[in-house]
Task: structure prediction
Amino acid sequence: MLVAFNKPFGVLCQFTDRSTPPRPTLAGFGLPPAVYAAGRLDHDSEGLLLLTDDGTLANRLTDPRHKQPKTYWVQVEGDPQPEQVQALRAGVVLNDGPTRPAQARRLAPEEVATLWPRDPPVRFRKTVPDAWLELVIGEGRNRQVRRMTAAVGLPTLRLVRVGIGGHRLDAMGGTQAWLSPGHWQRVGGSLL
Result:
C-alpha cells in the first residue's frame, strides 16, 4: 500500500514524540495502520510525504541510488538573480560537500497563487522582497534545500515538497487542485 499525505507545517514525520510538551505527529491524522514514512520531511517543512507498508518500496523511494526526483517549491527571502539560480543548477558547495546539479527555476506568482496558506503565516517584511523557486533534486541530505538556497544568499522562508517521483500534490486534489494539508489518500501506480 502507498499513501500520499500532505504534511502540515509543524508536524513530525513519525507517529510518536517523547518531547515535553509533545508535538503533533502523524498519529493525529487517521492514517492506515502499519504504514510508515518513506523518507523524511522536516518539522518546519510542508507537503508531500509518502507512507507505505512495503519495505522494498520504501527503499526504492528513499535510497539515492534509485534517484527519485523530489520537487520543492521554496519561498526565499530576496530577489533571485540569474546567477543565483544558475548556481543552484550547477550544484553548490555545502559543509558536507558539493551537491549534485539541480533543476531550478523561478516560479511566477500565478503558479503559486493556488498554494494553500501556511498556518502560522510566513513573516512579511515590506522592505525585503521574497520570491518562489522550484528546485528538483535527486539526493536527500539533511535540510539540503534550505542549505542550498542559503549558500547562494537566498534564505528559505517556506519549503513545500510538491512531488516525489511521479506523484505530485497538485494532481491529487481533484477539483481542489491540491490535496489539502492534513489529508491523505491511497495512490497506485509505479514510481520507478
About this structure: The chain is about 15% helix and 30% strand. The chain has a mean pLDDT of 91.
